[in-house]
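Posting for a labmate who doesn't have an account.
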Amino acid sequence: MARSAAARTHLEPPPGGSEESELQDRDEAVKAAWHALISAKVASWNALERELGESHGLGVSDFEVLDYLAGKPDGCRSQSLADAVHLSQSALSRLADRLERHGLVQRANCVDDRRGINLVLTQAGLDKHAQALRTYCAVLATTLPPELIARFE
């Protein structure tokens, strides 16, 4: 038995499938946005790896750690830092060991928890960050979509 338009719920697509077509269009738009985002991320990451490596001897993760610590004069606990720069605790530990060997960070006792250790930028780390920051921003300015940058200005 056919139901009248008034009897259909708002969740049922109207005859002719236009709602389904709209959902398919939306799905395609979402997928396209995702692919554009990933493409911009990969292009940016690759360019950053090349430029930061050639100009400053840093990888992207190295710079991200220096950049985060530059805003934390008292340093930061390892787990908080790992979360902030999207690294596992073990990956951060290896990266911190490397940065410490190069004199860019040092480990210091945490003032809030005597059992804890903070990572703190050294003066050499602050200097390296300041030098690499211009390269980092210049690369991103040329590889990220302008409309994305405009959203944050």
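Reply:
Got it, the structure tokens are right above this. Residues 1-10 have pLDDT under 50 and may be disordered.
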